[in-house]
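Researcher: Quick test of sequence recovery. Tokens follow.
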């Protein structure tokens, strides 16, 4: 990697731990005293978004299914940032759980300024092997989950007070990524939703934008799509920037869209993938071979 490029890459750690050091590139008080509700904030990209937001003065709620994991993450996040982080148990497929968590958030913090729709589920699977329920499950988590959470937060707070929504998307549908009909369809629907809600809720002071990450190292998403074998082979040569992205880079893009730095942006999808979708291989038979060998190994 060229030196100029290397100097641009922010700190990250590969595990679900907080950063051991951090250099601000935005004003440290950019989100001072704001409150962010982050689905899937207990791991991966969502966890780093919570950390970076808290390092910019924000309090957070991290919400997903596994409360033990969330509690541990919340403790670590508060320790590194000095801000409050509340863990809350929700399943984005069940609106009642979201309503309860949003009501608790408003009781505890008195406001919500930012919603990050980050929760998702994914795995590699060719369409012909995907069960009806598998396709439905991913659509329910990624697409219905994003709608459910957005609607609850809008009705309970954003409608009267405005706010910022950032949806975490993906580039899978741009070229019909092999073995990804479920997640690609779900994220394409979310990109449409980003624009529809931007149009309908703009007059209420709500901006709705999305970040579309490429392959991000140290994440469950990357591992599930065969990332570690790609990393081991150091075969990032097909990506224009010649590397995977990191979680802090995704958090910085999300911070931009969630903050006043992007005050005139709504309905936008910010692709943050090192140019990967333009040039990366999308060969059905190669991926099918990889998928079959993984399945054999798992047996
Ligand atoms: C084929 C699978 C499967 C797999 C599950 N199913 N895993 N089918 N291949 N690997 C099928 C099941 O057989 C079942 O169908 C249906 O999917 C529902 O499975 P459950 O296990 O009952 O669902 P649930 O407990 O709700 O779990 C949801 C999940 C799970 C998505 C299946 O993996 C999960 O909770 N994931 C969350 C973490 C995650 O995926 N992180 C990565 C996000 S990254 P049948 O017919 O048998 O009932 C991401 C990256 C995007 O989104 C792009 C990267 C470039
Ligand atoms: P991750 O760590 O597995 O994050 C997904 C989170 O969603 C988990 O914390 C999980 O927590 C939560 N979740 C799953 N199902 C849920 C449900 N039904 N209700 C509530 N929460 C639920 O994976 P990641 O790789 O960081 O992915 C984060 C986001 O980035 C996703 O939107 C993904 O599509 C996107 N993305 C990732 C990559 C990548 O390379 N990693 C690339 C493109 C896009 P619980 O298990 O506790 O519920």
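Model:
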């Amino acid at each position: 990697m060229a030196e100029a490029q290397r100097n641009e890459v922010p700190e990250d750690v590969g595990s679900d731990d907080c950063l051991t050091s951090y250099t601000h590139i935005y004003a440290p008080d950019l989100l001072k005293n704001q409150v962010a509700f982050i689905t899937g904030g207990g791991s991966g990209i969502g966890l780093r978004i919570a950390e970076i937001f808290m390092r910019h003065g924000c309090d957070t709620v991290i919400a997903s299914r596994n409360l033990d994991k969330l509690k541990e993450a919340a403790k670590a996040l508060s320790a590194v940032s000095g801000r409050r982080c509340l863990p809350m148990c929700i399943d984005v497929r069940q609106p009642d759980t979201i309503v309860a968590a949003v009501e608790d958030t408003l009781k505890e913090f008195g406001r919500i300024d930012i919603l990050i729709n980050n929760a998702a589920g994914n795995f590699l699977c060719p369409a012909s092997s995907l069960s009806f329920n598998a396709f439905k499950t991913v659509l329910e988590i990624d697409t219905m989950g994003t709608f459910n959470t957005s609607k609850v937060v809008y009705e309970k707070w954003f409608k009267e007070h405005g706010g910022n929504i950032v949806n975490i998307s993906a580039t899978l549908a741009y070229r019909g990524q092999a073995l990804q009909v479920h997640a690609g369809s779900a994220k394409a629907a979310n990109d449409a939703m980003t624009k529809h809600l931007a149009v309908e809720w703009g007059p209420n002071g709500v901006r709705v934008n999305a970040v579309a990450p490429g392959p991000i190292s140290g994440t469950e998403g990357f591992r599930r799509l065969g990332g570690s074998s790609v990393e081991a082979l150091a075969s990032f040569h097909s990506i224009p920037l010649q590397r995977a992205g990191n979680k802090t880079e995704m958090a910085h893009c999300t911070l931009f869209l969630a903050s006043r730095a992007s005050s005139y942006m709504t309905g936008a999808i910010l692709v943050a993938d090192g140019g990967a979708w333009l040039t990366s291989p999308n060969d059905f038979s190669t991926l099918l071979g990889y998928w079959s060998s993984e399945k054999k190994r798992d047996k």
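Residues 132-161 form the longest helix (30 residues).
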